[in-house]
């Protein structure tokens, strides 16, 4: 209670005090201050007006003369007018300000719009520029493309034209080829027909001839049986052909079968072998012509039907008493001739793998060094150590001719291709050319070295010498054309069938093939055990030129394959001493080899 | 209580009659009349003297005008004190109206703060409120308020809107009932003759026993000379808002109702008048 009274006390006190304060401080002065301020405002206003009026008054005084009283009155009315005008002007001013503000606003807005539009225009122009550039660029590209297109078209056109032209040429050439082939065919058939005709004619004539001869022979036989006639060794060579014809009459029946191959060859062969057959016929023709125009009935060289590399020794036999130096098959492959140190040339007949002794050719005074048949197979030429070469007729074993003149051992003697001349090479370092008709030595050439072997082509004689050289002689000019030096003493020379390659065996145990066209060593054959046995070891080609056979000092027969250059066979079961000479039968089926130890071996692949 | 609302209204709408005279040192085109104005007690000098400035600028040349400042009988008036405080401190017992001299030049740099614009006043005002709330509620209430609430407080003061101001300010006057009052009472004791500008200490409104403390208790603790003994003549007057409250008045009630808008209880202690 007391607390509340106390509370009320001080609160009441505070309230009263506040009220009193307000009375004193505020209420007393409030009205006065308010009124005072109003008066102050009014007086300020009046001061302003009076200033303005004074200036007007001075102006007016300049114009008019007015009484101060009127001035006073007018002052009042003027003051009022002025006030009104001022108000009006102020109003107008505010209006104009407002309008100006609005216009300024619109001006600003329009400016903004203009700027905006300008920007747009600029961007559009920029874009347009870009587009134009693009357009020009594209136009340029388009032009370039069109140009290139035109170029390509032109090139294409040119190519097409060229192609057409080539096509035409091709067609024309094809046509020509066709025509030429046709012509060729036609010519070939015609030629074949003519050949056939000729062959037939020949055969007919041959028949006729043989029959005639047979009749003659029989008559002569009858005559001969009656009286013995002396046989002269030296006969006219010129008569030889006729004698040969006579002499071979005995063996003519045996030759009949041999002629059949020739008949066979005259028939048209399949085109692949056509060329071969034609050359063969030509060869036969040549050999036929060399004997004059009369068709000869001598043994025709049999066609090499097939070269077979021998693998076994069919027949080993004693050929001579003593060394056997030379061996040769006859061109017909039926006869085998061997020559030895016993001064004899023995003839053997090759029948079914065996060599049957046929006969012996005597007359030589010393050992036989080389043997050769003529291309017909009717004569046999043997060179001998007694400084002479001899010719026998094969059929009757009669010595026909002896050619002397060398001053040393005749190491090799060959028929020239025309079979009318003989060339012989001797130890006396000379080569002699003999004419068979006149039986005299036509030419002697000094070779410079002992000649070990000779081979002949149509124009050329090749001789292998002791001084390691192979000399090429021209027959017509009878002079040396070329020399080829090997690495060892040349012991043997052989030619292949088409006379394009020369086989040379030299003392350095190498067998070389020399290409006659390029005169360079084309191939060299060697083998480990192959040793050249003597200065006269003879080597040979196979009839087709695809193999080379050579006998070694150890009695082994080596056969190389020409195409591969590799050793094909070594045949060692046969000989017991050094092989002196090897011969391959022209038929290709047999190989014969002879040795120092008097034996001869017949090899074949059967 | 109905009385309390009236107290608040009376406090808010308190006015002081002032007469502003231009200092004779100032160069004028013509003589300036004095300007009379009723100054609000709770506001600040520079906030309410726009018209004064305009009135005096009419007679002055612009090149002579620097910052306006006020002075009473030689002492420059600090604008950052509420006007009521300035009056109570300087001219409480003098004749009304309060004659203030207006100066435009020779701004006393060492005695007055510059007041460039109203935002300076606003900043000062808000910082006082925050300081007061820091003492009262550990700044919880003021920090919970949004920026617009702070703005409302200022706008209320600036535009003299009682309701607008008190709508927000009543939150700052609340306290948890179990406490019995604020944590500490925000107050300042001003003296005319003192080196210190004012006395401000921590003071709880409730005694440790739970008794509400009074104004007398405050003065006893902080300004014992102000309390007069029975037999001695009164030496000091303790004025708040132009009145002398009884010493029995509870300090909590005083802080709630007689605080200035900046939530501080500004107490002026002046020597008692001799007559």
TrEMBL record, chain B:
Its main location: cytoplasm. Gene3D superfamilies: 3.10.20.620, Autophagy protein Apg5, helix rich domain, Phosphatidylinositol 3-kinase Catalytic Subunit, Chain A, domain 1. Residues 11-104 form the Autophagy protein ATG5 UblA domain. The keyword Transcription does not apply. GO terms for biological process: apoptotic process; autophagosome assembly; autophagy of mitochondrion; cellular response to nitrogen starvation; immune system process; negative regulation of programmed cell death; piecemeal microautophagy of the nucleus. Keywords: Acetylation, Apoptosis, Autophagy, Cytoplasm, Immunity, Isopeptide bond, Membrane, Ubl conjugation. It comes from the Eukaryota. GO terms for cellular component: Atg12-Atg5-Atg16 complex; autophagosome; mitochondria-associated endoplasmic reticulum membrane contact site; phagophore; phagophore assembly site membrane. It is found in: Cytoplasm; Preautophagosomal structure membrane. GO terms for molecular function: Atg8-family ligase activity. InterPro entries: Atg5 (IPR007239), ATG5_HBR (IPR048940), Atg5_HR (IPR042526), ATG5_UblA (IPR048939), Atg5_UblA_dom_sf (IPR042527), ATG5_UblB (IPR048318). Pfam families: ATG5_HBR (PF20637), ATG5_UblA (PF20638), ATG5_UblB (PF04106). May play an important role in the apoptotic process, possibly within the modified cytoskeleton. Its expression is a relatively late event in the apoptotic process, occurring downstream of caspase activity. Plays a crucial role in IFN-gamma-induced autophagic cell death by interacting with FADD. This is Autophagy protein 5. It comes from Triplophysa rosa.
């Amino acid at each position: 209670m007391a607390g509340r009274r106390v509370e009320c006390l001080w609160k009441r006190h505070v309230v009263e005090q506040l009220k009193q304060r307000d009375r004193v401080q505020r209420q007393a002065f409030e009205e006065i201050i308010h009124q005072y301020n109003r008066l102050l405002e009014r007086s300020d206003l009046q001061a302003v007006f009076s200033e303005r009026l004074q200036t007007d008054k001075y102006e007016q005084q300049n114009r008019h003369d007015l009484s101060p009283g009127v001035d006073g009155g007018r002052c009042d009315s003027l003051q009022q007018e002025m006030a009104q005008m001022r108000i009006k002007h102020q109003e107008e001013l505010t209006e104009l300000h407002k309008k100006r503000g609005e216009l300024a606003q619109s001006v600003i807005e329009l400016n903004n719009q203009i700027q905006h539009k300008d920007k747009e225009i600029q961007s559009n122009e920029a874009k347009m520029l870009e587009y134009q550039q693009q357009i020009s660029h594209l136009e340029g590209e388009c032009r370039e493309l069109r140009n290139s297109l035109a170029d390509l078209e032109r090139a294409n056109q040119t190519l097409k034209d060229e192609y057409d032209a080539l096509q035409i040429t091709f067609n024309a050439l094809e046509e020509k080829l066709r025509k030429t082939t046709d012509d060729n065919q036609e010519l070939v058939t015609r030629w074949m027909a003519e050949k056939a005709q000729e062959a037939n004619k020949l055969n007919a004539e041959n028949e006729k001839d043989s029959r005639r001869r047979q009749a003659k022979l029989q008559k002569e036989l009858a005559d001969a049986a009656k009286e013995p006639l002396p046989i002269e060794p030296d006969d006219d060579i010129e008569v030889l052909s006729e004698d040969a014809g006579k002499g071979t009459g005995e063996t003519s029946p045996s030759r009949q079968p041999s002629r059949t191959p020739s008949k066979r060859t005259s028939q048209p062969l399949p085109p692949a072998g056509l060329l071969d057959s034609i050359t063969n016929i030509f060869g036969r023709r040549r050999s036929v012509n060399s004997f004059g125009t009369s068709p000869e009935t001598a043994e025709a060289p049999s066609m090499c039907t097939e070269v077979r590399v021998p693998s076994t020794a069919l027949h080993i036999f004693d050929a001579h008493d003593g060394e056997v130096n030379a061996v040769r098959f006859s061109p017909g492959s039926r006869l085998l001739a061997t020559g030895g140190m016993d001064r004899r040339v023995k003839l053997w007949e090759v029948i079914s793998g065996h060599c049957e002794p046929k006969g012996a050719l005597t007359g030589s005074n010393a050992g036989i060094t080389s043997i050769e048949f003529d291309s017909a197979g009717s004569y046999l030429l043997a060179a001998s150590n007694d400084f002479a070469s001899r010719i026998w007729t094969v059929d009757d074993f009669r010595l026909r001719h002896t050619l002397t003149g060398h001053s040393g051992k005749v190491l090799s003697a060959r028929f020239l291709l025309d079979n009318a001349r003989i060339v012989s090479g001797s130890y006396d370092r000379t080569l002699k050319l003999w004419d068979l008709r006149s039986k005299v030595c036509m030419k002697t050439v000094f070779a410079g070295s002992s000649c070990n072997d000779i081979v002949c082509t149509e124009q050329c004689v090749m001789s292998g010498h002791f001084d390691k050289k192979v000399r090429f002689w021209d027959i017509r000019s009878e002079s040396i054309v070329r020399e080829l030096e090997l690495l060892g003493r040349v012991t043997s020379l052989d030619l292949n069938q088409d006379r394009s390659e020369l086989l040379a065996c030299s003392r350095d145990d190498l067998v070389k093939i020399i290409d006659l066209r390029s005169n360079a060593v084309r191939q060299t054959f060697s083998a480990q055990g192959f040793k050249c046995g003597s200065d006269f070891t003879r080597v040979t080609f196979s009839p087709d030129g695809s193999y080379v056979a050579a006998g070694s000092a150890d009695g082994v027969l080596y056969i190389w394959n020409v195409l591969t250059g590799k050793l094909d066979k070594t045949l060692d079961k046969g000989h017991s001493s050094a092989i002196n000479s090897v011969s391959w039968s022209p038929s290709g089926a047999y190989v014969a080899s002879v040795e120092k130890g008097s034996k001869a071996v017949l090899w074949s692949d059967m | 209580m109905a009385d309390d609302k009236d107290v608040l209204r009376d406090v808010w709408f308190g006015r002081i009659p002032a007469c502003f005279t231009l200092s004779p040192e100032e160069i004028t085109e013509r003589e300036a009349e004095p300007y009379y104005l009723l100054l609000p007690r709770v506001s600040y000098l520079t906030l309410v003297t726009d018209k004064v400035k305009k009135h005096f600028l009419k007679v002055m040349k612009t090149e002579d005008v620097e910052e306006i400042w006020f002075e009473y009988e030689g002492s420059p008036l600090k604008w950052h004190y509420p006007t009521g405080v300035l009056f109570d401190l300087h001219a409480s017992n003098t004749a009304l109206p309060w004659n203030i001299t207006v100066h435009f030049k020779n701004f006393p740099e060492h005695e007055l703060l510059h007041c460039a614009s109203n935002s300076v006043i606003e900043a000062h005002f808000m910082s006082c409120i925050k300081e007061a709330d820091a003492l009262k509620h550990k700044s919880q209430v003021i920090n919970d308020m949004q920026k617009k609430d702070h703005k409302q407080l200022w706008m209320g003061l600036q535009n003299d809107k009682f309701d607008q101001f008190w709508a927000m300010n009543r939150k700052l006057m609340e306290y948890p009932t179990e406490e019995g009052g604020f944590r500490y009472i925000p107050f300042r004791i001003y003296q005319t003759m003192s080196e210190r500008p004012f006395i401000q200490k921590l003071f709880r409104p409730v005694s440790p026993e739970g008794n509400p403390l009074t104004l007398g208790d405050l003065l006893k603790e902080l300004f014992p000379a102000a309390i007069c003994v029975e037999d001695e003549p009164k030496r000091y007057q303790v004025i708040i808002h132009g009145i002398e409250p009884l010493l029995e008045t509870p300090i909590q009630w005083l802080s709630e109702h007689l605080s200035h808008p900046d939530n501080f209880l500004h107490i002026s202690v002046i020597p008692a008048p001799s007559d």
